[in-house]
UniProtKB/TrEMBL annotation:
The keyword Secreted does not apply. This is 3-hydroxyadipyl-CoA dehydrogenase. Belongs to the 3-hydroxyacyl-CoA dehydrogenase family. It comes from the Bacteria. It comes from Rhodoferax lithotrophicus. The keyword Oxidoreductase applies. The chain holds residues 1 to 289 of 507 of the full protein.
Length: 289
């Protein structure tokens, strides 16, 4: 059976936003030294402060001893440059959902990390095969797709592109399991598993809204209370962030050669254009002021 990465393996996380911070928290809690890098000045330090506050809260609730919380917090380091990630055994990328930007980052990374380092992308929808095409060694790249919020959501999709080596996927699978997650293997088809299945959840709700069938709050309440979903489609999109969710919608639509069933909504475009990105910007379908 393939072994998980040893806890002495340094894990680097690139992107200290909603997902990167959550993934860094999970890896640090599991015992790894975690280097967190973001190209927004101060973002990594701010994210680490937030994660430490989470660990302290967990300790206050008795979910973790105070010593364990402090030790987990101390395993987090803010990196300033890509070169600081030289000793990583695993790099998890959680930056903007854009193929060219991700390809450029991984290309630069290849020049920094060792040959043995596993490269993983937390992309929600971009083809792992396509990201890997820019690399000298695409065999070591796989998707490691956490769900939001990463510390709480159990599922992790381990996504193999055409070139991904089986050993890389199985090591990531074992590592996610060792981190307390419930991993599943997926091939790199558009949207992988969950984001593919979830597309109609958002798209049909947006169509009902456009047709004046019901308002957001009613639709959300129906899905939650009658449908048994934990969140309705509009509150879920607000939580994900419209920039992220719209990018995923566009990427799945394009991947299926502009199939009408995946057509992005003009409302999503408007929200992104207005900067109404959901919870993180204080306004989306709902107001969070
Ligand atoms: P976010 O906007 O909250 O964070 C992205 C971070 O990456 C920002 O802090 C930004 O400054 C940083 N960044 C951008 N380009 C960079 C670069 N070249 N180098 C270093 N840092 C860079 O986004 P997020 O919601 O955390 O999403 C990140 C990734 O995770 C995306 O690929 C997204 O599709 C995926 N994802 C998002 C969710 C979700 O619900 N938000 C869920 C699963 C996967």
């Amino acid at each position: 059976m393939t072994q998980a990465l040893a806890t002495h393996t340094v894990v680097a996380v690139i992107g200290a936003g909603a997902m990167g911070a959550g993934i860094a928290q999970v890896a640090a809690a599991a015992g790894h030294t975690v280097k967190l890098l973001d190209n927004r000045p101060g973002a990594a330090v701010q994210a680490i402060d937030g994660i430490c506050a989470q660990f302290e809260k967990m300790a206050a609730k008795g979910k973790l001893s105070l010593e364990a919380a402090q030790a987990a917090g101390a395993r987090l380091q803010a990196a300033e440059h890509l070169a600081d990630l030289f000793d990583a055994g695993l790099v998890v990328e959680a930056i903007v959902e854009n193929l060219q930007v991700k390809q450029a980052l991984f290309k630069d990374l290849e020049a920094v990390v060792s040959e043995a380092c596993i490269l993983a992308s937390n992309t929600s929808s971009i083809s792992i095969t396509a990201i890997g095409a820019a690399l000298k060694n695409p065999q070591r790249l796989a998707g490691l797709h956490f769900f939001n919020p990463a510390p709480l959501m159990a599922l992790v999709e381990v996504v193999s592109g055409l070139a991904t080596e089986l050993a890389v996927a199985t090591t990531l699978f074992a590592t996610a399991a060792a981190w307390g997650k419930t991993p599943v293997h997926a091939k790199s088809t558009p949207g992988f598993i969950v984001n593919r299945v979830a597309r109609p959840y958002y798209a049909e709700a947006l169509r009902v809204l456009h047709e004046g069938g019901a308002d957001c709050a009613t639709l959300d309440a129906c899905c939650r209370e009658a449908g048994g979903f934990r969140m309705g489609p509009f509150e879920l999109m607000d939580m994900i962030g419209h920039d992220v969710n719209f990018a995923v919608t566009q990427s799945v639509w394009r991947a299926f050669f502009n199939a009408p069933r995946f057509l992005p909504s003009l409302t999503q475009q408007d929200l992104v254009d207005a900067g109404f990105l959901g919870k993180k910007s204080g306004r989306g379908f709902y107001s969070y002021q």
